[in-house]
User: What shape does this take?
Amino acid sequence: QVQLVESGGGLVQAGGSLRLSCAASRRTFSSYTMGWFRQAPGKEREFVTAISWSGGTTYYADSVKGRFTISRDNAKNTVYLQMNSLKPEDTAVYYCAAGPAGNYAYWGQGTQVTVSS
Assistant: This one.
C-alpha cells in the first residue's frame, strides 16, 4: 500500500504561482509513474500531467502546457507540480496519483487550488 499526501494548495490571484507537493509513504514510489489530476466543481476529474519513474518523460494536458511543470525527487519520495500563470479555470481540487506504468492504483486526498480573477 502506498499513501500519498498532497500539500501546497491555496488561494492565489490570476497570474500567480503555486507549487504543489505529493509525498509518498514508500520507497517503491521510485518505480511508479506519478500523475496529477484535477476536478473542478460540477466537472469530471481530468488529467493534468504525469512523469515517468525516472523523471525522463513527462506528459501534459494541452490546457497546462507551458505553464505547469512536473518534477520528482525519488530520494525524497516526492513529486512536485509547479504552476505558473494561473488562470481562474485552473481552480479545482488537485489529486496526486501513483502506479506502475500509468496504472494509477493509489490516490491522495486532494488539495484545493483556487485562482481568483
The chain has a mean pLDDT of 94. The first strand starts at residue 4 and ends at 7. The two ends are 40 Å apart (CA to CA). DSSP finds no helices and eleven strands in the chain.
